[in-house]
## 1
Amino acid sequence: MKSIAVILSGCGVFDGSEVHESVLTILALSENNAEVHFFAPDDLQPAVINHLNGMEKTDKRNQLEESARITRGKISPLSSADASKLDALIIPGGFGAAKNLCNFAVKGSDCEINKELLSLVRQMHQQKKPLGLMCIAPVMLPKMLNTSVELTIGDDSETIVQIENMGGKHIKCSVDDIVVDEVNRVVTTPAYMLAQSISEANIGINKLVQKVLEMA
């Protein structure tokens, strides 16, 4: 049984992990008999958004506590993740990937990656273990791997410019497909960067999970 890390960053598309993408990832992993280990930073979110009206709120929320809502309480601090005990790593999207796991939402191509995530991903990469990222999360890859990795976020031109400024190689991709960088062992899919429905998002996410497990 493959042991897969799923990295979350809160609960909700505008300030954490995209819930549909996270649940579809969990479902696909479960259907393929993978053992899933959930991790999130034990840090406060830089922003909390009211998902009814899109307005920022003044209250504070912890990424680990919020992510536990998605995982039914079964989750560990990102600092405790051990690359040697994992076969692969997957990061769903949502603004949490661009606000909490890194600061791409604020700094664009000058972004910095969460140090715990950076350390884990680099160890996994050195051990030639596959990485799967979806939606906006792939923007982190050029900085995380420090190489010209092939990836997709769909076809958003402004984001593509930022990715290429960081040294990434963007490949346009439809919602129902994946981009595979065989050399760097990375799989990406646009998910809700393009998806108009949960069923559309599901097609690419399923392909991503199956490819990651095949490579693991």
## 2
Amino acid sequence: MGSNQENGKIFDAVIIGAGFSELYMLYRLRESGYSVRVYEAAEDVGGTWYWNRYPGASCDIESIYYNYTFSKEILNEWTWSSRYVEEPKI
């Protein structure tokens, strides 16, 4: 418990959760050359948006702010379908 090892491999960093911020941290650490492991209780990524899936849930800020602007590749491949996108798109 609390170990940074898995199957004998030692990681430089461990990230708890796979939400928006945690995925950014994963990107930054890997870009800096660190070995990283993410642990998430859910079956998929999404953080708050994974756990709060209900009819009518939508973003309370403009969807454009949910872009990963640190990656031109991701930024250029994504187009939001509405100004305040609904939860399934996030």
